[in-house]
Amino acid sequence: MSPASASSLHRIWAVIPAAGIGQRAVAHSTAAATTQPPLPKQYHRLLGRSLLAHTLHAFAQVPTICHTVVVIAPDDTVFASQTEHAFARTQAWPVGGASRAASVRNGLAVLATHYQAQPEDWVLVHDAARCLITPEWIERLIQACQNDAIGGLLALPLPDTLKEEQPRSASSGLDEGGKPARVAQTVPRSGKWLAHTPQMFRLGLLQAALDGNNLPSITDEASAIELAGHAPQLVPSSAQNFKVTYPEDFALAEAVLRARNEVASPMKDVL
Question: Residue 127 domain-assigned?
């Protein structure tokens, strides 16, 4: 499918893939060490709310989004059991696939089939574990992309020096000889960006990009659009828009949320 002509008159939808477990985040959790199935990462709690609930709350505050489809696993029993996930214009669909890309593709099909979303409509896809997303950042992406022929993504210029490592075992952290991993070379960081979400593309264009045999190699929607021969727009993001990935990330995300709450709450003892 060819890119659409620039127009802001089409509807805007959102898809939140939330069908995974998040093995890296739960690897050291108590649940992972027992015979009980680990709690999927998106349902871990931060300040009394699940990661997913924080994410959905932000999207529910963006009035230009017609509806948010949450893609959950077919055997998910947590989402419906927690009322904190009930937001206006939001519904979960148990159509999660074998990969993130497959889940997104299934979510797009739900939009087209059940909500009559049109090929020229916009779709924002967002990681459930990027729970620090704000309505302002979502609206920034919409404003930047709604008149773009391709679409784009929130992204952050690489702030650190980038190193490429020598071959090693991913599971042990050691190289092929059993020694600690070592630097192979320094990669110039100029022009390098960290891909964040949301990522915003036309429904038809994204469906076509995900309709192939390369789903396992697609790590985000922008990469699928790139494989289709297009160049997505890079829209500046925030360092706070990180993906909760490792166990220590939960404490960092909680600290950010606490700081926001302190700023938003009325100051005490002013008088």
Answer: yes
Q: Are 18 and 71 in contact (CB under 8 A)?
A: yes
- Entry pTM: 0.88
Sign of CA dihedral 231, 237, 241, 242: positive
CATH classification of the domain holding 88: 3.90.550.10
Query: Which of residues 173 and 211 earns the better pLDDT score?
Result: 211
**Boundaries of domain holding 124:** 12-150+195-264
DSSP three-state, residue 96:
coil
In a domain, 186, yes or no: no
If phi over 0 gives left and psi between -120 and 50 gives alpha, with beta otherwise, what is residue 202?
beta
DSSP secondary structure letter of residue 165:
E
Please check whether residue 132 is in contact with residue 242, taking contact to mean a CB–CB distance below 8 angstroms.
yes
pLDDT digits (tens, 9 = 90+) for 232-265: 999 999 999 999 999 999 999 999 999 999 987 6
Mean pLDDT score of the chain, rounded to an integer? 89
User: Tokens in use for 265?
Assistant: 């709450």
